[in-house]
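Hi, does anyone understand the following?
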Amino acid sequence: MNKKKESKINLSSPEQNGEVLNFIRNELKSKADERIKKSGERFFKESVKIYGWKTSEVKKLCKEIFKKIQGQTKSGIFKICEDLWQSGFMEESFIACELAYSLRKTNQPADFKTFEKWVKYYVSNWAACDTLCNHTIGEFVETYPEFISDLKKWTQSENRWVRRASAVTLIIPAKKGLFLNDIFEIADMLLTDSDDMVQKGYGWMLKSSSQAHLKKVFDYAMKNKKNMPRTALRYCIEKMPEDMKSKCMEK
């Protein structure tokens, strides 16, 4: 007997769009683990909504979702992402990030407004911020570096996650040795930020950049260490040789 082929879901139909969301949420609810939920909550100072899934298992679920929506429109997939973000659940935001990242080869300048909206209105913890920015927005900025000017505007936001996003978006490009001058400019803008999540974010950006530009980042740290919060400084110098670390930490 021939097996019935699984039909693809047409995301342009509101009715089918709801079916995709129901599938995702039913899976997340039915296989949630209370122990994983409790363990995950300990990584956050703020209150977070978690079903209780391991990241590796969410990635497997994403592969199943990809099969169901393969070949559907970009706008339809972005609508799914939007609905997932609005729930506030960690696992749903992760799926939204994975879906958006799967479309990276289709990035167009107009997509930035969508990504910016997600950062400004839906990101509410460091995990969601870093997952979205490290990959989806970081890849976008590599393709369209003119949008780094928008990241610099983010440094002035009252929203701590938007300010963190301005730095962590450049983590992967920084490892490749890209955008050093822009990285230093963003670090300058965030230098004395009092929020520890922002400090860790730009310190991490500098640390990543030091892998390709060790001496220049070391010189930057030495020049600014009197004004740079110790949290940011420690992140910045983490990958440096011990003698460089010692010099940077001297008062």
